[in-house]
Amino acid sequence: MPKRKVTTSGEVLEKHSQAGDVWRRFKRNKLAMVGMVIAIILILIAVFANVIAPYNPAQVSTQRLAMPSAQHIMGTDNFGRDLFSRTVYGTRVSLLISLLSLVFSLIIGIVLGATAGFFGGVYENIIMRICDILMCIPGMLLAVMISSVLGIGIVNTAIAIAVSGVAPCIRMIRATVLQIRSQEFVEAARATGSRNGRIIFHEILPNVLSPLIVDSTMRIGGNILQISGLSFIGLGVQPPTCEWGSIMSAGQEFITTFWPMITFPGIMILLTVFAFNVMGDGLRDALDPRLKQ
After folding, report:
1. Partners of residue 7 on adjacent β-strands
2. Helix, strand, coil % (nearest 5) of the chain?
3. 264: which residues sit within 8 A by CB, 6+ positions away?
4. What residue ranges define each of the domains in the chain, with the CATH number in brackets?
5. What does each C-alpha distance from 261 to 55, 57, 232, 252 come to in angstroms?
6. DSSP assignment, residue 205?
7. Distance between CA atoms of residues 259 and 281, nearest Å
8. What is the pLDDT of residues 73-108, one digit of tens each?
9. How far is the C-alpha of 113 from the C-alpha of 209, rounded, in Å?
10. From CA 136, how far away is CA 153, in angstroms rounded?
11. Count of CB atoms situated within 10 Å of the CB of 139
12. Contact by Cβ (8 Å): 22, 286
């Protein structure tokens, strides 16, 4: 609840916290709220996949390529495995890889971007030229190249996606740090004898959180697309591990005769990308200081 303060004239003033103001602006964006609800549902599905899935996702049966029914609400695949269970477990795998790749790229991006923006000079030029080289290569193509070198698997796929997205993260953080490093509170920290590391991590980085949160939220959807793309072409997560792209890859030879193997994982990818993108847009608008009243 907002804090109330009574002035000498008896007027009641309400003090809203910054987080409360952000939440109120975010709630006014109905599309962003829909995205947040979908994202929460997807996270809950990933966490409680073993409770929600009615069958073992690796359990085969003689009911191959069965159409959706009361027993198998999404049908079965070419090995008789329940598609609903595999899609549910695929939510866990896809979100896990997306978050792992996001964490990897954030660790590298925060360290290199913050130090490059703070120290400048030759060090900054070297970091920025490396970023320019990486950004000259399309992200998906770079991920394909790295995956072909590292091989398949959850961790290797996460590393490939992280490397393809680290350059934009570095540039975004560096640009924000350049705007902050000359402000008065940073100069005051220098004047009191604070070390560079303390200034970066205690004075500058907390002020980078807003754009970082927005960028991270919107990148989750892009990571999901890249993960699914890598798995679809055989360079990401491969069966029997459940992942939306690998399920679609296995179903491409049945696309004209059995639509569930392509349709249901595709819908999940669509919902995930939509949810995190519109939620990121809503967070960007809510965190924009120009929208404060």
Report:
1. none
2. 70, 5, 25
3. 74, 83, 84, 87
4. 38-52+97-291 (1.10.3720.10)
5. 17, 14, 12, 8
6. G
7. 33
8. 999 998 999 999 999 999 999 999 999 999 999 999
9. 13
10. 26
11. 19
12. yes
